[in-house]
Amino acid sequence: xxxxxAFATIGELAEQMRQGELSASSxxxxxxDRIKTxxxxxxxxxxxxxxxxxxxxxxxxxxxxxxxxxxxxxxxxDLFDVKGMVTSGGSRVLANxxxxxxxxxxxxxxxxxxxxxxxxxxxEFAYGATGENALYGTAxxxxxxxRLAGGSSSGSAAALGYGLCAAxxxxxxxxxxxxxxxxxxxxxxxxxxxxISTEGVIPxxxxxxxxxxxxxxxxxxxxxxxxxxxxxxxxxxxxxxGLRVGIPENFFFDRADPEILDSIDVLMNFLSDGxxxxxxxxxxxxxHTRTVSLTVQMPEAxxxxxxxxxxxxxxxxxxxxxxxxxxxxxxAEQYIRAKRFIESYRxxxxxxxxxxxxxxxxxTPVIAPKIGTVEVTVDGQTEPAGNAITRxxxxxxxxxxxxxxxxxxxxxEGLPIAAxxxxxxxxxxxxxxxxxxxxxxxxxxVPLPVTN
Amino acid sequence: xxxxxxxxxxxxxxxxxxxxxxxxxxxELVDPQLGIITGFQELLDQLELLRKVDLGSIPPAADISIK
Lengths: 452, 67
Fold this sequence. Notes:
Chain A has helices at 10-18, 24-42, 50-59, 104-111, 154-161, 178-183, 218-228, 258-273, 289-312, 318-328, 332-352, 385-389, 395-399, 428-439; strands spanning 45-48, 73-77, 115-120, 140-141, 144-148, 167-172, 187-190, 210-215, 244-248, 277-281, 358-362, 375-378, 381-384, 403-410, 416-423. By secondary structure, chain A is α/β, with parallel strands linked by helices. Chain A has one domain (5-290, 331-444): Amidase signature (AS) enzymes. The radius of gyration of chain A is 20 Å and the shape is globular. In chain A, the strands form 3 sheets. Chain A has an 11-stranded mixed β-sheet with strand order 1-3-2-6-8-7-14-15-11-9-10, with helices on both faces. Chain B has a domain at 6-44. Helix content of chain B is 45%, strand content 0%. Chain B is built from 3 helices and no strands. The longest helix of chain B is centred in the last third of the chain and has 12 residues, at 40-51. Chain B is extended and about 45 Å long. Chain A binds chain B through residues 192-194, 207, 230-231, 233, 288, 291-292, 294-295, 306, 309-310, 313, 318-319, 321-326, 328-330, 334, 336-344, 346-347, 374, 384, 398, 400, 425-426, and chain B through 9, 12-13, 18-19, 21, 25-26, 28-29, 34-38, 40, 43, 46-47, 49-51, 55, 58-64, 66-67.
């Protein structure tokens, strides 16, 4: 267990509260103090709700029958509505957009007793995986401030990474939770499409958006998922014996940092030693997947933002405007065709999952790039940094499969390496249970960042 | 397929009921100079390849049914 409450897991904090060693009020104060000190550096929070958090914490009494989330301070990406607060989307466009209601996910967290403390920075309207934001600054990686935390849920990852909250909600449209979690040594969980409501969350792309969670470990992800999911299945228990683990033969191990591949090898050996059966699987052709995703994303984004363009169009950042303009120039049949490709990917993956229980890939092909990096080159091929960060994650937003990224090693440059596990549709519980079993092995623990 | 022309996108903007994108933004889509956006022509080329793939009767993706 971490000696510092700011870096403790929810499970550890809940135990301390039940033992009378820690109160919700003292925990809120701990995070409030750290935010005051570290937010100028971390750029994790756009807005705070500390006074209401203090008031809520003071009224809480916690006993053994309560949800483990009771009294736990959490944050959310500033796409989620919180009644009475501005939902800015990280943009000048919505600087005065005060929410009238809580987002459904926020309501559920609050009903479980968690204490909301503030809203996190992000890539403007979730358009981009680098997390760069000209208005609120770019959240740096807690392990190396010269590097990106990743995005688009950059502030949510930084908030956990810098020890400013115990859990965070984000959105994941192509990897926007899993990738920053991976780059910052955290656990990012994207559930099956539709299992967590997106109501009250500013959309980026309706058919690809997933409300997702960032936590310190997979066990905590279970706690959040149980509070957030529309329907919770019976608890799952993981057993490596006989578990059929698919290893993609194409795409997912290509053009990756060798040290990342080495760490995934270690994880695969751990699974195999535990009795899992590793099975090479042929994935659908990935050749056009980014084209398909982009062809869905941009018209959907434009369709939502059309309501603001006429009056406040000049307030959008230049790059997002360019993306929206692109969305304007695609044909309807191209959009529909892209959606049909997505259906075909889903069917192909359903066939793949007939022979396996879960799939394993690296979370990202690269460690966190330096802030300001435009392109990265691996194995002689160059691509935009944002594309590289999400190269292994975005496919599963299209197929809608649950996916979790979890730390599995440290790179020689001092940055975390992470694996991604993908489960069957609605196999969320089994997926997180397997991730929890993996993290219970000390082999894959990563050191905490030095943030003070 | 012919290469995309600025005039085509100006026509969409002016004749299809579109938001009034600046001429410079349209020009950037056709011939990126600022590095703000890359590859619209490349995207169209890719989409042309996808157009030639026979998807049979596969419908557009919808929600994933809840068990």
